[in-house]
Amino acid sequence: MPSYDYDLFVIGAGSGGVRAARVSAGYGARVAIAEEYRVGGTCVIRGCVPKKLLVYAAHVREEIEDAAGYGWTIPESRFDWASLIANKDREIDRLESVYRRALDNAKVTLIEGRARFADAHTIVIGGKRITADKILIATGGHPVRLPGFDEQNSITSNEAFYLETLPERIAIVGGGYIAVEFAGIFNGFGSQVSLLYRGEQILRGFDDDLRHGLAMELTRKGIDIRLHAVVHRIEPMVTGWRLHFGDGATMEVDKVMAATGRRPNTGDLDAALAGVKLDHHGAIVVDAYSKTSRENVYAIGDVTDRLNLTPVAIREAMAFADTVFGGRPWAMDHDGVASAVFSQPPIGTVGLTEAEARRRHGAIDIYKAGFRPMKHTLSGRQERTLMKLVVERSSQRVLGAHMLGPDAPEIIQAMAIAVKMGATKQQFDEAVAIHPTAAEEFVTMRMREPDPSDVGQVP
Ligand code: NDP
Q1: Are 405 and 387 in contact (CB under 8 A)?
Q2: Which residues contact 356 (CB under 8 A, 6 or more apart)?
Q3: How confident is the model at residue 458, as a pLDDT?
Q4: CB 49, CB 43: distance < 8 Å
């Protein structure tokens, strides 16, 4: 057997790569990991973690406004973007050092630089050739800019975390997770936000009731949502930019943010030299065990474009390490993965939407609850929470649980256990409510929604 420098070489020290490296090293493998930017990857450095900190910060404004109804007089408040960003940066630095320490403690060699394949067992990094028996690609993804958008005229989420000043007027292009989350962030800080989406309704793929409910809440908070909006041209102005739309309309803003999806980081990898196949979007093609078209090369996380969520990449990493180095083969189950949109109010969702369930299962029962959260009886805020269960009629199994409202991600995380276990509506009903909470609605929904198929109008 040929001797290699390492048993495993991981390309990319994000959440997936770091976990795979540490666990494999724990099984006794000699492991190196390459990172070209910062240890921690998108989620920790310029994704989920700093995003959530900005969401907390933006939400403070509503907490202050809501306090009056509870008898508090709060002196005029002032928000300072620069101090928030500095504090956020400090926390991200701390987390990065935790990740570096974890690699060090696991005896994983960190090599800083951009890695490319020379062949299926050889990596070139900073002019040096390193060989490994197994190679794991965990290079993640990057935001895409559409034609007409460039580094001068627009930012992406990468830059949004480091802006020196808060824009007074910002146009966010896209209607997915990132667009909706940043719309709430900038709106909370007082920017005038326009959300420009090409389709019928934001958050395509989510349950329609939640999409419409969220669009209504965002509009109520002052976000200008423009549907069927296609930006044709971005014209520079003395200060800011003028957007020209397909229908001839224009809009002037200080900043344009492109939130139109992400693409796998495979451009500079020379994966072909290792015989590793990509699909037509540039994603690495893998089997259920995250193995590529090349026997000794694996790939996990966003670079495979399966379910682009951090906890999924981490689970894929665990499956990889257990299978390849731990002698316990198992494959990640990508079904029934819960997710959240940290919009304001947030969304939590697990399982099938109503539309998907009708398509796949035919007859279903829908239960819904819509109400004003108790907190807002005194705060006076006009915001509504929406909860929904999608149930297979024949088996009464709960196929999906969806929520729009405060704490939805926290609540749905718990619901995900029941849905994943295949719990029935009756089992939901047997759980006694915790009162007064919003979550109790999930165990007290008794009235089935009228079924459109009963009157011959299947949606
Ligand atoms: P998404 O895929 O969620 O959304 C992309 C948006 O851009 C969609 O609204 C899409 O419209 C629109 N779009 C795509 N192409 C074009 C085009 N040519 N012209 C106009 N609009 C276009 O991507 P994001 O960038 O928001 O996020 C990337 C991924 O990161 C997510 O899919 C998710 O997996 C992950 N993520 C998860 C988060 C979480 O868990 N909370 C938070 C942030 C990101 P259309 O729908 O019509 O295709």
Answers
A1: yes
A2: 400
A3: 46
A4: yes
Is-cis flag, bond preceding 345, omega within 30? yes
Nearest ligand 1 atom to the CA of 144 is 25
Residue 447 Cα to ligand 1 midpoint, Å, equals 35
What b/e readout covers 63-98, taking b as 16+ CB neighbours within 10 angstroms? eeebeeeeeeeeeeeeeebeebbeebeeebeebbee
Query: From atom 20 of ligand 1, which residue's Cα is the shortest distance away?
Result: 198
Q: How far is CA 404 from CA 340, 380, 387, in A?
A: 10, 19, 6
Closest ligand 1 atom to residue 302 Cα is 34
> Active site residue: 142, 232, 402, 435, which one?
435
User: pLDDT of 274-302, one tens digit each?
Assistant: 999 999 999 999 999 999 999 999 999 99
| Residue 435 annotated in active site | yes
Look up residue 143 and give its two tokens.
């935001």
For residue 333, the model assigns a pLDDT of 97
Q: How far is the CA of 258 from the centre of ligand 1 (A)?
A: 10
Q: Is the distance from the beta carbon of residue 309 to the nearest atom of ligand 1 less than 6 Å?
A: yes
| Per-residue model confidence as pLDDT tens digits over 393-402 | 999 999 999 9
What averages of pLDDT result for each successive group of 10 residues across the chain (459 residues)? Answer: 92 98 98 97 97 98 97 96 98 98 98 98 97 98 97 98 97 98 98 98 98 98 98 96 95 98 97 98 98 98 98 98 98 97 98 98 97 97 97 98 98 98 98 98 96 62
- Is there an atom of ligand 1 within 6 Å of 261 CB? yes
DSSP H helices, 27-173, are: 41-46, 48-67, 81-105, 157-160
**Residue pair 419/339 in contact by the 8 Å Cβ criterion:** no
Query: What is the model's pLDDT at position 408?
Result: 98
Ligand 1 closest atom vs CA 146 = 18
What is the pLDDT at residue 459?
Answer: 44
Residue 1: the pLDDT is: 61
Structure tokens at 207: 């349950």
CA of 175 to the centre of ligand 1 (A): 7
d(CA 197, CA 173): 6
Instruction: Determine if ligand 1 sits within 6 Å of the CB of residue 263.
Output: no
**Cα separation, 36 vs 18, whole angstroms:** 14
Tell me the CB-side half-sphere exposure of residue 430, using CA atoms within 13 A.
6
Ligand 1 pocket mutation, candidates 149, 157, 185, 198, criterion most atoms within 8 A of CB: 198
**CA of 173, closest atom in ligand 1:** 21
pTM: 0.96
